[in-house]
Amino acid sequence: MSDGTAPVSKVTQNERLALLASGALLLLGCIYAILYCSSAQDISGHSIGTDDAFISYRYARNLVRGDGLVFNPGEHVEGYTNLLYVLLMAIPFALDWNVLWFSVSINCVFTFAAWFLLVRHLRARFGVREAVLGGFLFALSPSIWLWTSSGLETPLVFVLQLSIWLLVDGLEQHPSRRSLACLGAALGVLTLTRADGFVSAGLASAYLLVKGRRREALVAGGAVVVVFGGLLAWRLHYYHDVLPNTYYAKVTSTLARRLKSSVKELGGITARQGLAVYLLAIAYCALSEARRALKAPARALGDLRFGLAFSVCWLGYWLYVGGDNFEDRFLIILIPIGIYLLLGSILAESTERMRGFFVASLVLVQLCVVVRSDQFGKSLKPKYDKWITMGRYLGEHWNHAVLATPGAGKVPFYSDFKTIDMLGLCDAHIGHLKVRNFIPGHSKSDVDYVLSLKPDLMFVTIVDDDLDVSPDLSADKYRSAGFRVRLLLNTTPQSRGSRDVLDVLGRPEQDIALLAREGWDGVVLERAPRAESATTN
Which domain holds residue 186? Predict the structure, then answer.
């Protein structure tokens, strides 16, 4: 791969128009995803943002209300992984703006900034034509559109990781105080943005140290240590824990079980999300570097570049923690790095026509995701989001109830009820349980503990004709605890209007089972009044 800087040539009118077109296509793709696509495979439940985004929004809203950075007032549990983003989300609540529109708007800005930085870097390294090709590949990546529309901090993490890659690369070639200051700032901001932001920061510092840039490594590492140390001290004071509760809830079980899950998930992502070519480019370049290192060990360290080293290490970290329940959201940084490796190594010796043909083919492969995946809107109809529908319904028909649910985002946010998070992200007891099984983000539960807290309502899913809602919570068990089926929710991708939520109190069990089979399988269990419950039992 060429590491020299291409001569900066004057941009022609056609090239300028092509660059503008790729930027415009990126923004159009993001807007399309915001308006018509679903940010996860659950195309009804996650039609409008992701469920986890609304956990962050709830923390931000409680902060503005004066309750502090808490999920439930009075309960100090760190159920988010994105402190800086939560603080950003406090802005729309303070100004009485729509939080979701604010979130996706600034996400568009972050995504466009990532595109701009990549295009500028490609132009400086390889020339304008490669920058145009890379810009189009980036702009027509459906995964980037989806995660811009998610309402999560993913685009902010994305642009920070990309900036760190480019800054480290630049410092190695042309060190300067300005670049070093920018790198320290980016590393510090990333450490505050993600609970695992120190991983990327640590990789950057370690790389600079290995490459002999001790001063730069010391400054970069020092910035991370100072920021992370301050964050740790605050966390211990405010939440009385070393790590976020989300870490205990998600990173669990044995390494072997986590790797089995993440390797299987990576195979699915590679097939579904259009990442195959970029992963192959990274693997090809990594193997090429390994072969050169075996032939000439003395030159191996000098030839190594941060983009390749980071992508391999970051993928290894992703596999180590067991992947992610939202599939490729932490892997989209591999898209710009893969583009860079393709243009700078694999296609460097190709003719212009061959490069154009390859890029066009890759764009088609990426856009096939839009055709294959149900996440992408097949019609220009308004989105239906089952979780938001139920949250609003509960908020309108119940007052000050205590809710238990495995989805701690949209339903708690829109109902504004005190909520027991049945998966433990926002519940310290469940989050700290020791378990052997592993499902990314969904490994832990304790039904008996939840029932002992006597919630007024439980929002779960019917799984069979007996009206069981999980292997651990059968119909007999929740009835003996005083609960009855009260509401059914339409969980199909399309709204059924006024029949999305059905009040089925008193209806025969066979009727409820039939409705569940027909798509009303979301269920609200209501704790019956004590006298009525005693009579029923």
Answer: 13-33+52-372
Please indicate, yes or no, whether residues 471 and 342 belong to a single structural domain of this protein: no
* Minimum mean pLDDT range among 158-162, 236-240, 361-365, 442-446: 361-365
How much is the mean pLDDT over the chain? 90
Clarify whether residues 354 and 452 are in a common domain.
no
Amino acid in the structure at residue 254: T
* DSSP codes of every residue in 107-172: HHHHHHHHHHHHHHHHHHHH-HHHHHHHHHHHHT-HHHHHHHTT-SSHHHHHHHHHHHHHHHHHHH
C-alpha Rg value of the chain to the nearest Å: 25
Contacts of the segment 477-484: beta carbons below 8 A, 24+ positions apart: 477/447, 477/451, 478/451, 478/525, 479/536, 479/537, 480/537, 481/451, 481/527, 482/527, 482/528, 482/530, 482/533, 482/537, 483/458, 483/525, 483/526, 483/527, 483/528, 484/525, 484/526, 484/528, 484/533, 484/536
Same domain, 174 and 239: yes
Judged against a pLDDT cut of 50, whether residue 537 lies above it is answered with no
Q: Determine the Cα–Cα distance for residues 26 and 330; give it in Å rounded to an integer.
A: 19
Q: What order do you get walking across the sheet with 402-405 strand by strand? A: 418-421, 402-405, 457-461, 522-527, 483-489, 501-503
Q: For the chain, give the percent of residues with pLDDT over 70.
A: 95
Of 72, 250, 223, 55, give the one whose Cα is nearest residue 153: 55
Give the chain's domain count.
Answer: 2
* pLDDT attached to residue 230: 95
Q: Does a structural domain hold residue 378?
A: no
Write the pLDDT tens digit of every residue in 220-251: 999 999 999 999 999 999 999 999 999 888 88
End-to-end, the C-alpha distance of the chain in Å comes to: 74
* Cα-based distances in Å from 206 to 120, 159, 500: 26, 20, 54
**7: in domain:** no
Specify the pLDDT at position 464: 94
Q: Compare 356 and 217 and report the one with higher pLDDT.
A: 217
Which among 263-272, 283-292, 315-324, 413-422 has the top mean pLDDT?
413-422
Entry pTM: 0.92
Residues 180 and 327 in one domain: yes
Give the whole-angstrom CA distance, residue 224 versus residue 187.
6
Within a domain: residue 40?
no
Residue 22 lies inside a defined structural domain of this protein: yes
Residue 530: pLDDT band by 50, 70, 90 thresholds? low
Which helix (H) or strand (E) segment holds residue 430: the answer is helix 428-431
